[in-house]
Fold this protein.
Amino acid sequence: MYAYDELDRTLINERVSEFRDQVKRRLSGELTEDEFKMLRLQNGVYLQLHAYMFRVAIPYGTLSSRQLRALARVARRYDRGYGHFTTRQNIQYNWIKLSELPDALADLAEVGIHAMQTSGNNMRNVTSDQWAGVAPGEVEDPRIWSEILRQHTTLHPEFSFLPRKFKIAITASEHDRAAIKVHDIGLRLHKNADGETGFEVLVGGGLGRTPFIAKTIKPFVHGRDILSYVEAILRVYNQYGRRDNIYKARIKILVHELGIEKFAKEVDEEWKQMGHSALTLDHSVIEEVRSRFSYPVYEKLPHMPDELKQAAHDPLFERWRKNSVAPHKVQGYSIVTLSLKPVGGPPGDATADQMDAVADLADKYSFGEIRVGHEQNLVLPHVAKRDLPQLWKALDRIGLATPNVNLVTDIIACPGLDYCSLANARSIPIAQELTRRFANHDTAEMIGRLHINISGCINACGHHHVGHIGILGVEKNGEEFYQITIGGRADENAQMGALIGPAVPYAEVADVIEDIVEAYLALRDRPEELFVDTVKRLGVEPFKERVYATR
Amino acid sequence: MPLVKNGRITTDLFVQIADGAELPGDGAILVPAARFLEDPEAMLRRAGKLGVIWPNNRNLDDLVPYLDRLAAVALVFPSFRDGRAYSQARLLRERHGYDGELRATGQVLRDQFVFMSRAGFDAFEVKKDADADAFAETVKRYSVFYQPTGDGRVTALNRRMQLRHSESAGQ
Amino acid sequence: MTSPLQQKIKITGPSMVTANRTSDGIVIYRTAQQGWSASLSDAAIVRTSDEARALLNEANADDVVAVGAYIAPVELKDGGEIKPGNLRERIRSKGLTIDLLPA
């Protein structure tokens, strides 16, 4: 955990008072909506269909139990008793009143939580691997660097009015859980031949209307230079990014239009001119930030405790363990994923009671720490293996032990037309119906790893392009239709999915997905071949034939 | 439109020259970039202070050779959403060492004062009277800054390092 | 379901003007009495593009109370009852179409 000091706390409090003043000026009419809109967006406040939506940052996905309780309290006191975890390590409240927002922010500030730059044309919440610091084989904890970047990007005096939003993600593991290739800047931490820490820097990835996989702009930037290099990229983007057309304003379009070589040259020139600057991070500065991360004092525990051996006789426990429990870098410990995708539930939602209960379980079993991942699930990152059976029982009681992590019902979905003013079609009821269709866990396990991602419009908050199966809501003559893509993925082999045929109406989506899954089961060359690999091997055609033959 | 300078509302000593208008024989003037670049030397020879209004989509290279002879540079915010002039301001101050008046013009609103000050602006043509009145109070809103810029404010990181240093020295 | 930003002022049937209330964001409808109501049944109904434009301009002039006013279609039932004219407006007037808890 990163411990905020007096300076971090002061800044958050100063931001709360500033926003309180801005809300007051808006409610009195001193600010027009046109002027206020940018100010509220810079603090995560959107206006949706039914109410204001409030997006709160969970930097690099790390929460303390105390912070999670504060999130629960806000859900209860200012909203309708629940919140929605997003794909970028934020939580959203759907029913917040503008007049009460400053108080909600002040409550969150008490535990070091804020909503700065969770929206608007600025540098957004820096995201990272939800297994950071505990994943076996990780190069080093990427959150040290995430925190350095979090501070540097917060209220940046030069880059708070960029052409468009700007998202940075960091990973330090071979398997990318942070989707860095679909970010404006993706940073892959690795070491050079001299054993020094640095980053492969990728730029220009993104989804939305014009999806691009990020390209490598520099294979190795030394850790001490990472702020100046990021600053050089931002400066080039701030000056040359398009401002004439909102759909062409992201850095991915600039990189695409200039070409990566030319763009890289511009960045390099700017970077050279910056030279050795105040942004260069010397060793002591990095160590200062590192020193404020505290790590659990792990016990020396056996690899296979008796409690686990006994519990293995319970097939329901075993099913959950095999699905939701992952190896930890320390022997005797595990990383446990808490599925927020119960059958029939809205993906990523958690009630205030669940949040409180998870906070209690984190205190009891996970050194008071919780993580939030981009798949919209929660994680307890340091669970002793001997505690797994007890934890499982407790999670089951609060509805958070659905053994479907990475399976067909672990669906990523945006809020869609039920909440969102940009949406063309609903997402949540499609997800709910799909979880009912695939509710049988034996079937889901037999199908294996399969990510379904659903977006209610082209803005792609549900990351449909990179779903193994992607579902995109569109509008045709006032009716909801859905385009379906297959073969996308968001990991280190990131790729955009390919369209399988004409859009289908709302009522037929679940049938079509069932057909695609059946086609896969018939086409895979062995049970271990994942859906996405079968698509890669065979292409879209055989799936298309089967799905559209009868339609 | 009130001008805020040195933290106070002041009288604007510069006369802004419209395109094509005749130049006054003396007195401080602010001229558009295109006009200035027609014959910079002649303009600089004129009696009276000279300032240039530099658009936010024009490279600073053409301006840099004259910086030490200019009394003011005015950068433009056509909309408060357009942040290009923040980069120009930092480059003028931090890379090119410009130390004359750096003026923010266009849609200059209260909620940008802190960002603008940090980027190096020291004069503000403020759009609304109420915002100009609130200037002194608004720029004091923040006492903690994460990024090093040319405005000389000590960053959070530096304050922490100093603290560490004094702690270890005291032991 | 078209975003209000993309709407041109050209209506093809009975319409109303709707927005969200600034202080709490709830859905409101422009009334014939130059005010706002949380009830669709109080909405002023317009039938021509000129009327629609006039009602929208009047609504937009009230930037303090209401946010993001736009024109949306309605269906008029025989008894004079006003119903939302598309899915987006049905969701705005009646709420979520989904169960919040797993079922």
